[in-house]
Amino acid sequence: MDEQMIKESVRMFLTAIGEDPNREGLLETPGRIAKMVKEVFSGMNTDPRELLERTFDEDHEEMVLVSNIPLYSFCEHHLLPFFGKAHVAYIPRKGKVTGISKLARVVDGYSRRPQIQERLTGQIADAVMGKLNPYGVMVVIEAEHMCMTIRGANKPGARTTTSATRGIFRTETPTRMEALSLIKKESAQ
């Protein structure tokens, strides 16, 4: 990322809205914004699929669910935050499992970039499906979008839920229902 360009852009933005970027309270703002941008968009030049390279062989072919994974992203249309939680479930094939923290890190890797929730949900599911080759994957994301809360529709508290299913979660209703039941239970806590 070009930190200097970010700082210059922030100064220009402040000037464009009628502020004085040289007044005391704003002098350090361009630097703070540049630092924040590097952090919140840290997923820009990463490939979250690489986080799933390391696997373990376990005698386990039952559902694995990591629920209530906090996520923070930025709507690519308005560059305003959206935040919520992700639930990632998969059924290992031939006992090929990954560390559960890796699933949370994959969520971070894809969410730490300008995004839309629909794409984010699919990217996570595709990464797990592509790297682990499980019987199936389900990803559910529930999020509140600041572009709906503080502007436009002005509807604080409105939440958007998206899901992506792959493999057995698409075709086997009992498996899908089990995952949704567990997610609902965990989400309510």
Which stretches are low in confidence, meaning pLDDT under 50 for 5 or more residues running?
A: none
How many individual helices?
7
Cα(first) to Cα(last) distance is: 39 Å
- Could you estimate the helical fraction of the residues in percent? 40-55%
Rounded to the nearest angstrom, the radius of gyration is 20 Å
Please characterize this protein's 3D structure.
The protein is α+β, with helices and mostly antiparallel strands. 41% of the residues lie in helices and 25% in strands. The strands form two sheets. A five-stranded mixed β-sheet has the order 5-2-3-6-7. Strands 1-4 form a two-stranded antiparallel ribbon. Strand 2 and strand 3 form a beta hairpin. It starts with a helix and ends with a helix. The relative contact order is 0.15. The model has no long low-confidence stretch (mean pLDDT 96).
Briefly, what is this?
This protein is an alpha+beta fold and 189 residues long. It contains 7 helices and 7 strands.
Explain the layout of strands and helices.
Layout: H1 3-16, H2 29-40, E1 56-57, E2 64-75, E3 81-91, E4 96-97, H3 100-111, E5 114-115, H4 117-132, E6 136-145, H5 146-149, E7 159-167, H6 168-171, H7 173-188
Parallel strand pairs: 2-5
Antiparallel strand pairs: 1-4, 2-3, 3-6, 6-7
